[in-house]
């Protein structure tokens, strides 16, 4: 029979492996929606830390520009990129008058103006350019300016 130290070691090792696998997972872009100078991306497996999220943006800016033409500036140069957590996947928007905000409708983000391609709103980060040429990254209540 295994002693308590061996069992504890196995549990800690399993947790460590699970944590490592969770951190090393590759981000997957599920869908991209573009309207004027606003871009919305739904992603799976996004980095968990603030520094990981900023690093992901810096490492994938060129890829997003080439593949999805993001960001797409307005005539005055402004652009915005919102990155959303894909969460439990696409859902249909509830039936009824969606102009009446309630808990079923106001917390959903729909892509491609399709009422069957909606996700629960959980913004991961927002990136926007500033008039001085810097870029702001907003994660939660924290906002950083980068160049």
Pick out its properties.
alpha+beta, six-stranded mixed sheet, single chain, 147 residues, 2 helices, two-stranded antiparallel sheet
Brief overview:
With 147 residues, this protein is an alpha+beta fold.
Describe this structure in words.
This protein has a domain at 27-87 and 122-146. Helix content is 27%, strand content 30%. It has helices at 4-23, 50-68; strands at 28-35, 38-44, 80-85, 108-110, 118-120, 123-129, 135-139, 142-146. The strands form two sheets. It has a six-stranded mixed sheet with strand order 1-2-3-6-7-8, with helices on one face. Strands 4-5 form a two-stranded antiparallel ribbon. It is globular and about 70 Å long. The mean pLDDT is 83.
Mean pLDDT: 83
Major sheet size, sense and barrel closure = 6 strands, mixed
Q: Helical element count?
A: 2
The gross shape turns out to be globular
User: For the CA atoms, what is the radius of gyration?
Assistant: 19 Å
Structural class: alpha+beta
Percentage of residues in helical conformation: 25-40%
Tell me the fraction of residues in β-strands, as a range: 25-35%
> Which sequence of strands runs across the widest sheet?
1-2-3-6-7-8
Please report the total strand number as a whole number. Answer: 8
**Oligomeric status of the shown chains?**
single chain
Order of helices and strands: HEEHEEEEEE
Low-pLDDT sequence parts: none
Span from first to last CA? 59 Å
């Amino acid at each position: 029979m295994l002693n308590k130290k061996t069992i504890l070691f196995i549990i800690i090792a399993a947790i460590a492996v699970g944590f490592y696998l969770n951190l090393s997972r590759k981000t997957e872009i599920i869908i991209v929606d573009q309207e004027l100078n606003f871009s919305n991306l739904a992603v799976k497996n996004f980095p968990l830390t603030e520094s990981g999220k900023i690093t992901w943006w810096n490492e994938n800016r060129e890829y997003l520009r080439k593949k999805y033409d993001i960001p797409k500036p307005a005539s005055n140069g402004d652009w915005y990129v919102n990155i959303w957590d894909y969460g439990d996947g696409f859902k249909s928007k509830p039936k009824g008058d969606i102009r009446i905000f309630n808990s079923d409708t106001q917390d959903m983000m729909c892509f491609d103006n399709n009422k069957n391609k909606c996700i629960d709103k959980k913004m991961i980060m927002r990136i926007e350019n500033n008039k001085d040429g810097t870029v702001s990254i907003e994660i939660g209540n924290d906002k950083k300016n980068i160049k």
